[in-house]
Amino acid sequence: MYMDLLRRCLTRELFDDEDFVFTPARGLTWKGRAIRRALGLAKHPRIVRLIHNPQTLEDKREGVGWPRSAEVMCGSRRLEFLQKTLYAIEQERVDGDFFEGGCWRGGAVILMLAALRAARGHQQRLVWAADSFEGYPAPTENSSEDDKELYEHAAYFRIGRSEFEQNVERYGVHGSELRVLEGYFDRSLPAAPIERLALIRVDIDGYEGVRAILENLYPKLSPGGFVVIDDYLAVGARRAVDEYIAKHQLKNAMHMIPQKQAKGMYFRRER
Ligand SMILES: C[S@@+](CC[C@H](N)C(=O)[O-])C[C@H]1O[C@@H](n2cnc3c(N)ncnc32)[C@H](O)[C@@H]1O
């Protein structure tokens, strides 16, 4: 019950007064896009704030839109799936720590830290929270149009490390299990002192970032461990995952995360 309540708080499913969502340009009609261009506002972060729609309860469950204050944007169905993953890891005694990249405002990391306390598990685990804390990296020649658009909205994704840490503290789960890796993944992960992982949660859309996470961390995943790609249908993320699977000839069965409109995917390392 504690975990369910926590999930509903993190997604704001419980609260009606937090019902605005910033609509990214991607969600605009052609007319909205034209007005935005005509006004020369395409790169202006504040225009995102001017265009808002009420976020329905169903949006909060599905993880549709960009919430104003919720600590997590993936919605409660994908968060519920994360909860089940953590239970499976504990029950099946899969060895290793939990990792999330990027952790943004901290919602999924808060859920992981809470699960460790609630489970009083059989082993000491750490939670690794990784983020640039500066938003998405500048596009490169490998970037898709979607990657470029995310960079345009850098202001929305630029959550400082102190805001992340304050959120963890506000929920009362701050403790010695938390490790923060600050910086873009291609720099922060190669030297990260991570030994073994039971869960790699990837929650970014961009090609380079997803590739860096898989290249550096998959070799550290325990047998039976989970890789969860929260935004597998994003062009860049999908390309990076598919390339990695093909390159390393992974035979793991891939599954979509259950929700009404599938977005995320997961697979487990063979035992
Ligand atoms: C979609 S948000 C994550 C949402 C969050 N996990 C949740 O469940 O609500 C993506 C985050 O990844 C970070 N990020 C994106 N690309 C990155 C990269 N290459 N290296 C480090 N952080 C990155 C951004 O700063 C942002 O905080």
The separation of the N and C termini measures 32 Å
Order of helices and strands: HEHHEHEHEHEHHHEHEHEHEE
Q: Rg from C-alpha positions?
A: 18 Å
CATH fold assignment of the largest domain? Rossmann fold
* Major pleated sheet: 7 strands, mixed
CATH class of the largest domain: Alpha Beta
Which terms summarize this structure?
alpha/beta, globular, 2 domains, single chain, Rossmann fold, 3-stranded antiparallel β-sheet, 10 strands, 271 residues, 41% helix, 7-stranded mixed β-sheet, binds S-adenosylmethionine
How would you describe this protein?
This protein has a seven-stranded mixed beta sheet with strand order 6-5-4-7-8-10-9, with helices on both faces. The protein has twelve helices and ten strands. The protein has helices spanning about 1-10, 30-40, 45-50, 55-60, 75-90, 105-120, 145-150, 155, 160-170, 185-190, 205-215, 235-245; strands at about 20, 50-55, 65, 95-100, 125-130, 180, 195-200, 220-230, 255, 265-270. Helix 11 (about 205-215) links the parallel strand 7 (about 195-200) and strand 8. The two termini are about 30 Å apart. The protein folds into two domains: about 10-65, no CATH class; about 75-270, Rossmann fold (3-Layer(aba) Sandwich). Helix 1 (about 1-10) runs antiparallel to helix 5, helix 1 (about 1-10) runs antiparallel to helix 6 and helix 11 (about 205-215) packs parallel to helix 12 (about 235-245). The longest helix is centred in the first third of the chain and has 16 residues, at about 75-90. The chain is globular and about 60 Å long. The chain has about 270 residues and is an alpha/beta fold. It binds S-adenosylmethionine. S-adenosylmethionine (SAM) binds near residues 73, 104, 107 and 159.
